[in-house]
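User: For my dataset I need records formatted as: sequence, then structure tokens, nothing else. Please produce one.
Assistant:
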Amino acid sequence: MRKVKMIASGLVQGVGFRWSVQYLAMEIGDIYGRVWNNDDGTVSILAQSENPEKLSKFIHGIRKGPSRMAKVTYLDVTMANFEDFDDFRVSN
């Protein structure tokens, strides 16, 4: 299982970004995790997959900005260790 933590900066709050991230995960399939807003205006994403190609596709989709109104100016991606998820959800 490959697991990553991402922090997206840019115009990523108030533009439907988190919901677009969830939709992207569901569209690609086999991507599980959480996405939430941070107090500093960034968005955090935990994502995991057994399929490295799908996880790479997901990361690439986040970099592009999964919603038309969002603009990701920087995406920090690091390997992570967290409890397994069995779905992908927007968290508060």
